[in-house]
Amino acid sequence: MRALPLVFLLFIGCEKKADPPRAVETPKPTKITHFYGNAASIARGETVTLCYGTENAATVSITPPIETELRPSLNRCISDKPAKDTTYTLKAGGPGGDVTETLQVKVGAAQASTPSTRQLIKSFNVMGETTRQPGSKVQLCYTTEGAIAVASQPAATAPLGPGTNQCFFVVVDKTTAIILTATAVDGAVDRMQVGVTVR
Question: Which of 73, 94, 111 is the last residue of a domain?
Answer without folding.
Answer: 111
